[in-house]
Design goal:
heterodimer, A: about 300 residues, MetI-like fold, about 0% strand, elongated, disordered N terminus, B: alpha/beta, 8-stranded mixed β-sheet, 6-stranded mixed β-sheet, about 20% strand
Chain lengths: ~300, ~700
């Protein structure tokens, strides 16, 4: 790879772009005790978020052993009933146990967003870092125009239309959501990289003649890691909502698969008979999303405070 | 407990010590601001238990007087000022007594303090670039600071704003409608001062008001503060790290160190004869502008935390006069004649020696290995030297190593030996062939419109000039037709203020940015555009030249250990077998530092590591961009000395980019002055500084505080 010698010439072109809060190299003597304490969210909230996320993770891993009933097992005699008689959250129209479906649905709910986050990590982060390191270059321009293009469409509408017309199945929806998450991830990585790339430690590495790839992934990436991590978790939360939303609209998982969005949709018609069938999956979606977001926030704070020299 | 008793013993003495002092620190009765036994504590947090940050500070400030609080980072000077105004950060707590015109400020609720602040007592902060709200025009900004009555009356407010702007030397018609980003740093600081003075405060607290400014702007702002203060009889509390600034502005100076006051004296008396080893150390450590000194004296070690020195003399660790008595208890301020006080218990014994040391400093020693053409000595404070010429002691103390070409081994500053790998290399080869040739170098920034538009708004003091190129395009030129040569082993200073293009020049030399026009030839290879070089040439060019950056805090990757950083640099160099430990040793750091993270190091140590990293590839040219500007005074000399040793030991050429003329004097053979992207003057350093010809150079030299 040829060395990038042109950074300063093109810096000014980036003024129009939103530059996220830099993750500056903290200087000793500037971070006061107050700053350190402020960076730590009240641990109670974080602990709550973490335990929520942990419970959901447990459901994903061990859900099969935890369900009191087979989530697919129908019992038409006991259809659409409120809690009671061994069914803690009641049953749906076909007499399937809501709690079991809820537990089993955790896996569907989480796997898709995980794939989206993984896609953002494997595609978005390298592309973003590359664009940021070569800011102003051709690659950067292409990436940015792509991001502009995707931004120009209302994302959710696009998903609904695409998946609704040509779509077929859950994984296609996951792919579309990934594509829609990418621009934000790329931009963010690009801009955080841009901030780092101007710092002397990066220039020192360039002056030493280190390979560009090494500078990007060994020097810059660890320094933008807190931001990357936090946004990946945000992506995860967003994807969870999008995919559950699609399922709710009937565009996500195939009917019959236990899924929170699907459960929410079916529960809507039974609101008067068994409100828990709607409330429970809604609550799970909220817990998962809020929990992950808070956790990401906290990890970010910790990550940026972690380099604090004192 | 022990030192509470001490305080009681010393303080009343100071108030009635029979010297009949009536002004300045005076008695509490005449004082506008009277501080006693001020402590600042930090509440315990995750990382630390409760800590004491400021310990037992006391002073009085009368109307119309100026008190300077001088100290390095971590000395507690800013915390003291903040405690006085009641704007300490959360987690910090002040105790003691702060009387402002008889009103106790400490412990008073925020609601009652607020009308006082901005009204009777005002603050000016260090950073003019963030002290103003970027979304408000100067007019709106100033209106905020006016008294409520004036503010509401539109006509009155407008008149008042104009008056205030004129008072700080700004033209209201051009400035009032502008936003902060359209103003230069000096103009912004003037606006901040105008805002602080808008309600005629009786006390102005200025925290490093000129630190972020250029030398010439600094001189203007200091003159402005002095004038405004004299006009109004306002009391001024000036916080600064720069003794020269304090001496040029203040009546009285407190020297703080690690949270304690070590010396308290009238400025003139302190300048004449410091009565504490630390005060002396600070004065000696400041590299002189007026003459070259053969061996820069520096304070070994670094500033301790206030808590680490609770029951010992705070300075004992770095003090060469330390005796057992210094570390058994914490000495309080002891009153001395001439209305001064010192916290050094050995003052009666060492006073004479301190004075001799200071006088020794003014002796001018023409460096032994210099070209004969240089003038022998600069005119200056010569008279004082005569009385001490005969003192053998001072010669020994200022020049611990005898002048002359350095031997193979030089003692490192941390007690380690500096072992150059190529002993016997001649330190200076002034008449070699040009090693670096720069010809007609030009650099234009801002192909996009945004920058161009912004710069055309920029104020008239902005030194980077806009140049009209063919047609109508107006583009700022960072560099214009810069040409010079550098011989192997030579040291060249590049002097200029911010915006003069000096950093752009450095970046061009290092291939971090491409020049628009002109060529750079390095060791026979055209390196104007690193991208055009073949892989092998590229690697070799990279090895020829390395850089030392200004900010030691961001020049090391915070996520990599020192050893990893150095190890990586070694792999880029010609000798992959080098160990990080050797490199560390070479810059006077123990080998154990390889395991440390950058965050565990002080600024000076980081700068050493940055130099070690540069040395890893055995460069023949080291470009130093403001190598000591971000460092404490007591550490600056260490780094300058290290750079000298690097040059002497390896024959490395230096290009020293700086606004600080004392750095140029101490480190370079030749210098060129950049102004608005052009070389306005160049020549041998001594000649350039002693008899500048270009008006800009003359202005730079005239603006050294308290200088020539």
């Amino acid at each position: 790879m040829a060395d990038m010698t042109d950074m300063a010439d093109t810096d000014t072109a980036d003024m129009a772009n939103p530059v996220p809060a830099p993750n500056p190299v903290p200087a000793p003597g500037t971070a006061s005790a107050r700053e350190v304490s402020r960076r730590f969210r009240p641990p109670v909230l974080v602990a709550l978020a973490a335990s929520g996320v942990a419970v959901i993770a447990l459901l994903v891993v061990a859900g099969g052993w935890l369900t009191p009933y087979d989530p697919g097992q129908q019992d038409l005699m006991r259809g659409a009933a409120g809690p009671g008689d061994g069914h803690w959250l009641g049953t749906d129209a076909l007499g399937r146990d809501v709690l079991s479906q809820l537990v089993a649905g955790a896996r569907t709910a989480v796997v898709g967003p995980l794939c989206v986050a993984a896609g953002a990590l494997l595609l978005g982060v390298p592309l973003g870092v590359l664009a940021g390191y070569r800011a102003g270059g051709l690659f950067d321009a292409v990436i940015n125009r792509f991001a502009d293009l995707v931004y120009a469409f209302p994302a959710m509408l696009l998903v609904v239309v695409v998946v609704g017309t040509i779509g077929d199945g859950y994984w296609f929806a996951v792919a579309v959501v990934t594509l829609l998450v990418l621009p934000a991830q790329i931009r963010l990585c690009r801009n955080t990289t841009l901030v780092q790339a101007r710092l002397p430690y990066v220039e020192a590495a360039r002056t030493l003649g280190l390979p560009a790839a090494r500078i990007m992934f060994r020097h810059i990436l660890p320094n933008i890691r807190p931001t990357v991590l936090a946004t990946l978790l945000l992506d995860f939360g967003g994807a969870l909502i999008s995919l559950s939303g699609l399922s709710y609209l009937g565009l996500g998982v195939p009917p019959g698969t236990p899924d929170w969005g699907e459960l929410l949709r079916q529960g809507q018609t039974l609101l008067a008979v068994n409100p828990y069938m709607s409330l429970a999956p809604g609550l799970m979606i909220i817990i998962a999303t809020v929990g992950v977001t808070l956790l990401g926030d906290w990890l970010y704070d910790r990550g940026t405070a972690g380099t604090d020299p004192r | 407990m022990t030192y509470d008793a001490q305080t009681r013993r010393t303080r009343p003495d100071r108030e009635a010590d029979g010297t009949g002092r009536t002004s300045g620190i005076g008695g509490a009765d005449g004082a506008l601001l009277s501080v006693r036994r001020l402590h600042v504590y930090a509440r315990p947090d995750r990382a630390h238990g409760p800590r004491t940050l400021v310990r037992d500070v006391g002073f009085d400030l009368a109307p119309g007087r100026t008190l300077g609080v001088v100290g390095e980072s971590g000395s507690g000077k800013t915390l003291t000022a903040r405690a006085v105004t009641g704007v300490l950060d959360d987690g910090l707590r002040a105790e003691g007594q702060v009387l402002f015109d008889g009103i106790e400020l400490l412990g008073r609720p925020e609601r009652e303090l607020r009308p006082l602040r901005g009204g009777r007592l005002a603050m000016v902060l260090q950073d003019p670039f963030t002290a103003l709200n970027p979304l408000l025009t100067v007019r709106a900004q100033l209106r905020e600071s006016l008294a409520p009555g004036t503010r509401r009356d539109r006509v009155l407010a407008s008149a008042e704003i104009s008056r205030r702007l004129r008072e700080v030397g700004l033209d209201p018609d051009t400035v009032a409608g502008r936003y902060p980003f359209q103003l230069s740093g000096g103009m912004r600081q003037r606006v901040a001062i105008a805002a602080a003075l808008a309600r005629d405060p009786e006390l102005l607290i200025a925290d490093e008001p000129t630190t972020a400014l250029d030398a010439t702007t600094q001189a203007e702002v200091l003159a402005l503060l002095r004038r405004l203060q004299a006009d109004r009889g306002m009391a001024l509390l000036l916080i600064t790290h720069d003794l020269r600034v304090a001496f040029s502005v203040c009546d009285r100076v407190l020297v703080m160190y690690a949270g304690s006051v070590l010396e308290d004296a009238p400025a003139a008396a302190l300048a004449r004869s410091p009565r504490h080893p630390y005060s002396l150390g600070l004065m000696l450590a400041e590299p002189p502008v007026s003459h070259f000194v053969d061996r820069l004296v520096s304070l070994p070690g670094q500033v301790p935390a206030a808590d680490g020195v609770a029951d010992t003399c705070a300075f004992a660790d770095r003090c060469e006069w330390r005796r057992e008595v210094c570390t058994t208890t914490r000495p309080g301020l002891t009153p001395l004649p001439e209305e001064r006080a010192s916290a050094c218990v050995r003052i009666p014994e060492i006073d004479d020696e301190l004075r001799t040391r200071l006088l020794g400093r003014v002796r001018k020693v023409p460096p032994a290995r210099r070209r004969p053409a240089r003038p022998l000595a600069a005119p200056g404070e010569a008279p004082r030297t005569t009385s001490t010429r005969d003192s053998a002691r001072h010669a020994e103390s200022t020049h611990r190593t005898p002048p002359g070409p350095p031997s193979g081994r030089t003692t490192g500053l941390y007690g380690h030996d500096l072992v150059p790998t190529t002993p016997g290399t001649p330190p200076v080869t002034p008449d070699g062939a040009p090693f670096l040739t720069v010809e007609g170098l030009g650099k234009t920034y801002g192909r996009s419109g945004t920058y161009g538009r912004m710069s055309s708004f920029a104020g008239p003091t902005r030194s980077s000039r806009s140049v009209r190129l063919k047609g109508t395009t107006t583009e700022p030129m960072a560099l214009r037709d810069v040409s010079f040569e550098l011989r192997e082993g030579e040291s060249l200073g590049v002097v200029g203020e911010s915006g003069s293009g000096k950093t752009t020049l450095a970046r061009c030399l290092l291939g971090l940015t491409r020049p628009t026009t002109g060529t750079i030839r390095l060791g026979g290879v055209d390196v104007s555009d690193y991208r055009k070089l073949r892989r092998k040439e590229h690697r070799e060019a990279r090895r020829l030249v390395q850089m030392v950056f200004q900010d030691p805090y961001s020049s090391l990757n915070p996520r990599l250990s020192i050893g990893t950083t150095l190890g990586e640099a070694v792999t880029a160099g010609p000798d992959p077998a080098q160990r990080p430990a050797e490199l560390l040793e070479r810059v006077g750091l123990p080998a154990s530092y390889a395991r440390k993270q950058p965050g565990e190091l002080s600024g000076g140590e980081r700068q050493r590591v940055a130099i070690a990293r540069a040395l890893a590839v055995r460069p023949r040219l080291l470009v130093c961009d403001e190598p000591v500007a971000a460092l404490d005074v007591s550490v600056q000399a260490q780094i300058l000395q290290l750079l000298r040793e690097v040059r002497a030991g390896y024959g490395t050429s230096l290009i020293v980019i700086t606004h600080d003329l004392s750095v140029v004097r101490q480190l370079t053979d030749r210098a060129l002055v950049l102004h608005g992207g052009e070389i306005v003057e160049s020549g041998e350093t001594a000649a350039l500084l002693d008899s500048p010809r270009h008006p800009h150079t003359q202005r730079l030299i005239a603006s050294i505080p308290g200088g020539n």
